[in-house]
Automatic annotation (TrEMBL):
This is Glycosyltransferase family 2 protein. The chain crosses the membrane at residues 261-281, 293-314, 334-353. InterPro entries: Nucleotide-diphossugar_trans. It holds the Pfam family Glyco_tranf_2_3. The lineage of its organism: Bacteria, Bacillati, Actinomycetota, Actinomycetes, Kitasatosporales. The keyword S-adenosyl-L-methionine does not apply. CDD domains: CESA_like. Keywords: Membrane, Transmembrane, Transmembrane helix. It comes from the Bacteria. The keyword Transmembrane helix applies.
Amino acid sequence: MVHETVVLVPARNEEVGVFTSLESLSKQTRRPDLIVVVVNNSTDRTEDYALQFAEDESTPPTVVLNFPDNPHKKAGALNYGLNWLRQAVGGRLNGRVGHILVMDADTELHSRFIERARNVISSDPEIGGVSAACFGRTDLWRSPWQRFLLGMQIIEYGRAANSRFRKDVHTMSGAGSFYRAEALQGLIDWRGEVFWEDHRNLVEDYETTLALKESGWKVTANQLCIAYTDLMPTLRELVQQRERWSRGTVDALRRRGWTKFTWHSIITMILGLFGFSYIFIWGARQLLAAAQYSLNTHPLLWALLAFWIIYPALRVRTLGWKAMLVEALLIPELVYTVVRAYWLVSSILKSYVTRVSAWK
């Protein structure tokens, strides 16, 4: 029996969202042949809700695996599911499985995600993976500050989704990544596992993206393969999440060094640091100058101010007029930029001066 599309869903303490995530798979225009849920070190009712979904005869065939003592975080859960799948189909993925979709248990996929991803991956035999375009999903704010924080994340996700490289993306998204099974089997043959099992691996999706490129596969993203993911409701949770992502990226870049697959990420990070310096030093001085002297006598200041208003607004025009207005006001984005600068700088410093803390 050949499975055209198998979905792997690692889930740790996701009782709130796992049922919604699985339901989005059931509503696909091209439904998966099999769903494998790996309950990973959970202490809540995640397994109960997954089993409830699996027992419904109207849903796609679903297997729920419990991995209670997983020492290798999400990477370990994904490898556990892949090993189970390999045994179920006779030992190797290629020839028995066409595609493998990996999605987070706090993610909801667009109803045509699988259909569109299959079309993209079938367009080029060298494509090993198609990444989702991620958008924020929430309206659960309880204060003006929380509404600001969530709103800026929605804008951030939307801006990133609209500007991602289509032929050589930085990283496959953990929220939704559609792989050619042959490519994943190639990684297993090459290094014994798909996702690197090491406590230092904080970003298994980025490390796997680099491994795919290094083994000769292309990866891409598509703006129509949409995944809706939860956002961080508090500043503390947001900084913790982004520090882990950024720290993991810096760690991976330091381990590999300057290569044809890492140079773009390194340059982007360096330019980001220069950009923050410009905003906080030269940009602030120019704004102060504009406030002290009449703009009528400084046309360049008028042009600079117009650029700062118009360009950010145009970058988020697909998100609607409210997002454009927020970006045009400048101050909300400036406040959020301070937060972004903090987690980027702190991540780089921690990568060099502290060890990675174990997490599951």
